[in-house]
Amino acid sequence: MYGFIKACAVTPDIKVADVRHNTSKIIESIKNAGEAQLIVFPELSLCGYTCGDLFNQRALIASVEEGLSEIANSTNGNRALIFVGAPVVCFGRLYNCAVAICDGKILGVVPKTNLPTYGEFYERRHFTPAESENMTVTICGESVDFGTKLIFSASNVEGFTVSAEICEDLWVPDSPSIYHAKAGANIIVNLSCSDETVGKAEYRRDLVKMQSAKLVCGYVYCDAGEGESTTDMAFAGHNLICENGDLLAESPLFKNCCVCADIDVDKLSNERRRMSNTFFSAGDMQGYKVVGFTAADGGEVERTFPQMPFVPANNEKLRERTELILSIQSSGLKKRFMHTGSKTAVIGISGGLDSALALLVTARVFKQLKKPASDIIAVTMPGFGTTGKTYNNSLKLIECLGATAKSIDITKSVLSHFEDIGHDPEILDVTYENAQARTRTLILMDLANKTGGLVIGTGDLSELALGWATYNGDHMSMYAVNCSVPKTLVKHLVRYEAGNLGGKTEDVLNDILNTEISPELLPPDKSGNIAQKTEDLVGPYILHDFFLYYAVRWGFAPDKVRYLARRAFKDSFDEETIDKWLKNFYRRFFAQQFKRSCIPDGVKVGSVSLSPRGDWRMPSDASNAVWMSFLND
Which of 24, 192, 479, 612 has the CA that lies 20 to 30 A from 590? Predict the structure, then answer.
């Protein structure tokens, strides 16, 4: 469903060399895996990794083949792709293998490439390393593909492509999984029997996470556990499922169990296409054979999705992220001042979050450059919609940071402009609103010229995505410090810096944090409060940032974005509300590209940027018809 594959890593309770017992446990585990589409068992799980010289016994090998046949027969009607670890004889040699089974058939056999023969391991005593080319082998009376260059590909689920490697294969510099991924495998399974020693679990976890990140893949690591011989080693059943560097599921140590997770192969495929010039190269698929199968449906997706994907849920990570972002913003602006030799920074201060963040970043830069804060010219420009609260907060913040305050009422200038262009000031339309924004930008630009300074842009990423900015008004500046910071993250940056500064500065920033988001271009209500609330007009930013993340960062189709949003916000918004604002997002995103095509320079801080010189190149007249068609059902 929507590109999600339900994968399970299962560590069954085994008995060393008791193939019949192990066969029954594996069959039982397959039945208990429910709607899983991919099931992985540990290395040599059918007989046990720790059989030692028993691997040379014909009785054991014959029993293993009987067990594989029984497991295969038990899966008739079960379309899960299953990998079982077993010793397999091919051309008189014994190989440590991953046997792929689906719907009653053995699809293929993947031998282990790298056999450890050091420390506690002595696999070359019993096994032969994989050959360089694929072959065929007769197993359970059927001729099947045998080799490392196999990709198991579902005919009915796009992107469900799987290859296997075994334990040590992951730990070597030249892992088979590197070539599997480049040949098109979106998921790598690893059948492992990794003994447990002090510190190894942390290393193993990091290794699996980073391999999944490096290969932009899902990685299912299934480890042997209780039941293996403890003559010289202990095994903890450390199962891991990762996706592109993220840990989706992990089992506790020393507890045989099944862990499951939904791997998003659609996401992986999109990311690889985005990186295609460096990820893929000519000849990557040479020697590989694609083995087809019909996948199980998979059932309902159980994975959860955070409502604010740009904001870490962990408080410690959030603090680290906010400090890093403020440092990136400051670094970009600092370089611009050093390059231009500008004396002042000119910022329009509205009493809202975005301008507060821009002022805080600028104050950091001036401190780093040892420039006086008084060279920051912070300008309040009250107009028709300015409320006492935002105006007073602007002045308080400027004073706290030691910047130079200028207050310029734009009412007279705008009314004069209305007279020049023949506009009735009683008509509160887009001309009424945008004339104020353009007047403010004119003032800032001319003040910057007069004082030898730079106008610092305050607009954020969410506003750029929606086009919620006046063209050649607040849309324009000489350097935009917030241009890749989404609205849902802005408040956390401001709150973090408020805590750093403390005192009166923290008090006024907290008041700003509690102020309604508004451009304040329409007159206040009768009580003098903000009448024009941005989120009533364009929609909740928490929804738009969610849409933006999955639509732009991952390239998901609109129906998948809608599906994820309905799951993430099921307790916050009804489906009708989500659909309404999602359609509005796509309408505005396409219609407002012309504003993004000419935005000023600004530093990228995260994984999403809409700079026409950086991450996002889109024609301003592109049609949204295809995207909207996904939402018309």
Answer: 479
Q: Are strands 105-111 and 142-146 parallel, antiparallel or unpaired?
A: parallel
As a whole number of angstroms, the distance between CA 235 and CA 253 comes to 9
In this structure, how many other beta carbons lie within 10 angstroms of the beta carbon of residue 184? 18
Helix (H) or strand (E) holding 404: strand 404-407
Radius of gyration of the chain (CA): 31
Q: Is 497 exposed, middle or buried (0-12, 13-18, 19+ CB in 10 A)?
A: buried
Q: Which structure tokens are listed for 504? A: 């009166």
Q: Is residue 309 part of a domain?
A: no
Q: Name the burial class of residue 132, with classes exposed (0-12), middle (13-18) and buried (19+) by CB atoms within 10 angstroms of its CB.
A: exposed
Q: Which residues carry out catalysis?
A: 43, 112, 167
Instruction: Judge whether 596 and 38 are in contact, CB under 8 Å.
Output: no
Provide the phi-psi class of 629: left if phi over 0, else alpha when psi is between -120 and 50, else beta: alpha
Query: What is the phi/psi pair of residue 46, to 5°?
Result: -70, -25
CA dihedral (74, 79, 83, 87) in degrees, to 10, reads 40
- Residues 382 and 376: their CA atoms lie apart, in Å, by 19
Rounded to the nearest angstrom, the gap between the alpha carbon of residue 146 and the centroid of all alpha carbons in its chain is 36
Length of the chain: 633
Is pTM beyond 0.70? Reply is yes
Q: How many domains, the chain? A: 2
Domain that holds residue 174: 4-293
- pLDDT tens for 313-339 read 999 999 999 999 999 999 999 999 999
